[in-house]
């Protein structure tokens, strides 16, 4: 299966499916959103940012062919990439001067789990051979009957699945508040990490950075609408009409957002890995409000 040439994320599609399948989910996520706002207003999120949170990770490698059975080294390269991006230790020279003051450090790190749900020693990596050639956004990769591997307890681990995805997808995530048994992030195996089978232009681990952003309750910066009326619930990301692809030239204007235009170098846009380099301070606060709220049990 050919590697995708443009970023495509299935998170919003999954979100809409879950809202239809679980009628109570809409009210639950509205309540979560209100809690996020209160956490920010009360300074809880800001206090959370002052201490380093380490999130235990389990990577479920689901494969049919040997090339899909990515190596431990490739898995570890993804954890290293996440740790660089979520500690603002990447190349910040690509951030336009107009926005250097907005770039934020989430102060979050990730570590492969050392204990499984039963308390036994683990590498933090599971391996499941499947008969399926690919998976979609229906969460079948998260069940044995669907050909995948079930999640470890979502309040104790960030579940990452590495598999072959169909339809040109690079990945998808589940926002806080959804079913625990499907909570986590799914990543295309050729967009996972920075070594092994990771293929350009998605070979810097930024697909996971983007999808984990969703897991921590960030939205796409254009708000998943094409009429300039969408919102990502963050005030310091400029309004944008549509996703950006490839490696745009600064500035790229839409939605009367001149002179600086779209913040296409933000991790929550659709540009190539090499072109995305920042979260904003507002996004950082929102992620930490999530860690103080709906995901407060993890990483303690």
Task: Provide a descriptive summary of the structure in words.
By secondary structure, the chain is an alpha/beta fold. Helices cover 23% and strands 13% of the residues. Strands 1, 3, 4, 5, 6 and 7 form a 6-stranded mixed β-sheet that branches. Helix 2 (25-41) packs across helix 6 (281-292). The chain is globular and about 50 Å long. The model has no long low-confidence stretch (mean pLDDT 97).
Secondary structure blueprint with pairings:
Layout: H1 11-21, H2 25-41, H3 44-48, E1 53-63, H4 72-85, E2 103-104, E3 108-112, E4 125-129, E5 158-163, E6 171-173, E7 185-188, H5 206-215, E8 279-280, H6 281-292
Helix pairs in contact: 2-6
What composes the largest sheet? 6 strands, mixed
Count of alpha and pi helical runs:
6
Q: What's the end-to-end separation, in Å? A: 40 Å
Computed CA radius of gyration, to the nearest angstrom: 18 Å
Shape: globular
The amount of beta strand, in percent, is 5-15%
Given the helix and strand composition, which structural class is it? alpha/beta
Q: Order of helices and strands, N to C?
A: HHHEHEEEEEEHEH
Oligomer: single chain
Helical content band: 10-25%
Notable characteristics:
alpha/beta; six-stranded mixed beta sheet
What can be said about this structure in brief?
By secondary structure, the chain is α/β, with parallel strands linked by helices. It has 6 helices and 8 strands. Helix 2 crosses helix 6.
């Amino acid at each position: 299966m050919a590697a995708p040439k443009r970023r495509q994320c299935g998170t919003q599609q999954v979100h809409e499916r879950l809202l239809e399948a679980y009628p109570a989910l809409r009210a639950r996520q509205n309540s979560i959103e209100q809690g996020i706002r209160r956490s920010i207003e009360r300074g809880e999120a800001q206090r959370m940012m002052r201490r380093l949170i380490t999130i235990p990770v389990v990577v479920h490698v689901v494969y049919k062919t040997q090339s899909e059975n990515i190596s431990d080294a490739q898995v570890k390269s993804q954890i290293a990439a996440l740790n660089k991006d979520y500690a603002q230790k990447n190349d910040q020279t690509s951030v336009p001067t107009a926005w250097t003051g907005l770039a934020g450090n989430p102060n979050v790190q990730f570590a492969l789990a050392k204990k499984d749900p039963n308390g036994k020693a683990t590498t933090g990596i599971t391996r499941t051979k499947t008969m399926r050639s690919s998976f979609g956004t229906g969460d079948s990769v998260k069940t044995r009957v669907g050909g995948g591997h079930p999640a470890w307890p979502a309040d104790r681990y960030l579940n990452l699945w590495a598999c072959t995805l169909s339809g040109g997808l690079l990945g998808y995530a589940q926002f806080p508040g959804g079913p625990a048994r499907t909570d986590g992030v799914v990543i295309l195996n050729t967009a996972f990490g920075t070594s092994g089978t990771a293929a350009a232009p998605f070979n810097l681990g930024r697909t996971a950075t983007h999808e984990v952003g969703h897991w921590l309750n960030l939205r796409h910066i254009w708000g998943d609408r094409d009429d300039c009326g969408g919102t990502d619930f963050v005030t310091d990301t400029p309004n944008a009409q549509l996703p950006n692809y490839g490696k745009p030239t600064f500035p790229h204007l839409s939605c009367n957002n001149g002179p600086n235009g779209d913040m296409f170098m933000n991790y929550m846009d659709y540009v190539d890995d090499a072109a995305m380099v920042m979260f904003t301070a507002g996004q950082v606060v929102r992620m930490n409000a999530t860690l103080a709220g709906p995901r407060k049990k993890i990483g303690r």
